[in-house]
């Protein structure tokens, strides 16, 4: 879904690049990397996930799934991070050279497992949200998958669910290792591409997890 019609019609009046994002969101991280690599300036709109700001009616009018990131470029709304990084880079960018749709699609699919394992192995020991914030999130957020995910996290993820995510993640990194096995410096060849950008936050996140 590279571009959608915004529910909040005021977005159409915005000029330049506007990014709604969160610091620890891996999908937000890949967008910020491309913006930095392309030397593009943008208006930053941080979304505080800990306070449940992505469950607000105002934000869900920007991103109907209530997740980050979301990008507006001269009034055009783009909401999927893989689509956003391709849009920001542009077809003539060196970052597009050699970038495989298969590798990008695989990185996108991997985000669900990354989210699950991040919550289990990185966020599990963090202070829990207040009952007020948690209840407001469940009541106000319209994304059924996401509200169920937070309920499952609070109750404790099923062990098999965790193990299957670990297995798929191992397979993903085996795939990346095989791609690098010919001695190339980057995933697509001898220069950095969107493939590296798409997977960089995942590698960083698992490093944080130890």
Q: Briefly note the CATH topology name of the largest domain.
A: Glutathione S-transferase Yfyf (Class Pi), Chain A, domain 2
Helical content stands at 40-55%
Domain module tally: 2
The total count of strands amounts to: 4
- The appropriate CATH architecture of the largest domain is Up-down Bundle
Class by SSE composition:
alpha+beta
Shape: flat
DSSP strand content: 5-15%
- What is the strand arrangement across the widest sheet? 2-1-3-4
Helix count, per DSSP?
9
* Residue windows where pLDDT falls under 50 for at least 5 positions: none
Average pLDDT level? 96
Q: Write down the CATH class of the largest domain.
A: Mainly Alpha
Give the SSE order as H and E letters.
EHEHEEHHHHHHH
Termini gap: 34 Å
Largest pleated sheet: 4 strands, mixed
Radius of gyration (CA) equals 18 Å
